[in-house]
Amino acid sequence: MDSGLYAAYTGLLARTQALDTAANNLANAGTTGFRAARESFSGVLAQGLTPTGLDAVADGDSQVGETVNGFGVLGGTAADFGQGPLVATSNPLDLALSGQGFFEIQTKQGIRYTRDGSFLKSADGVLTTQAGEPVLGSRGLPVTLPTGTVSVGPDGTISVTTDAGSGVVGQLRIVDFADPAGLSEEGANRFKAADGVVPTASTAVVQEGAIESSNQDAVHGTMELVLIQRQAEMMQKALGVFDGQFDKTAVEQLGKV
Fold it and tell me: In angstroms, rounded to a whole number, what is the distance separating the alpha carbons of residues 119 and 125?
């Protein structure tokens, strides 16, 4: 089969997959604590295949491998853990992390990790996410806030001031991972650690009265989406040329032989 057909097909496949990723990134450009996904690519049949396609062989032993090797397809996506911009809100329960790290929350599915610090105080005084899930403190228990004015320090220490005075009521559990890329995404802005992976203490600084926006800029996300769409259209046209015009020419010429 013509190597150009392989190139056009794998190019279209890669751009179609990348289009889905870019669209999801753009859709979450306004999601607090969202981490954009970035695509990675890999070569097709990089090691070469036997004519039967069963075993990897040395370079040069496979015409199939030589034909398609080097044409990239989307190998997968990984979350970009780069810092998003911090936006001031003046709400004392809005907390943002400056630096690498995660808030630890308790969900029905187990412990999860998030950069979304837009927290609330429940009717029974528990600090929760917008979905009502408890935020965990340094001892691994939900943080409970008594009635009063809340203040959160850079290290996550929580103080509450009442008519009787002020005092420390707890400290947020803020953790990090040696390899954040190993976290699996759940929803738009939370992550799950693999079984057996133990987080470590984070050096991230807590900023009270602010939230961290998505690290996907809407303007750049739109430009990227348009660019990928155009690339996909080009690959589709190229595939049509190889699949239609070249095959038609081959049939006409063979009939004359």
Answer: 12
Q: How far apart, in whole angstroms, are the C-alpha atoms of residue 91 and residue 149?
A: 11
Question: pTM for the complete prediction?
Answer: 0.74
Q: Angle, to 10 degrees, between the axis of helix 3-27 and the axis of helix 218-240?
A: 160
Q: Where are the domains of the chain?
A: 3-81+216-256, 86-212
- Which pLDDT tens digits describe the chain residue by residue (257 residues)? 455 566 666 666 777 778 888 999 999 998 999 999 887 655 554 444 444 444 444 444 444 444 444 445 555 678 899 999 999 999 999 999 999 999 999 999 999 999 999 999 999 999 999 999 999 999 999 999 999 999 999 999 999 998 888 999 999 999 999 998 889 999 889 999 999 999 999 999 999 999 999 999 888 888 888 888 887 777 777 777 766 555 555 545 554 55
Please state, as a whole number, how many other Cβ atoms lie within 10 Å of the Cβ of residue 257.
Answer: 4
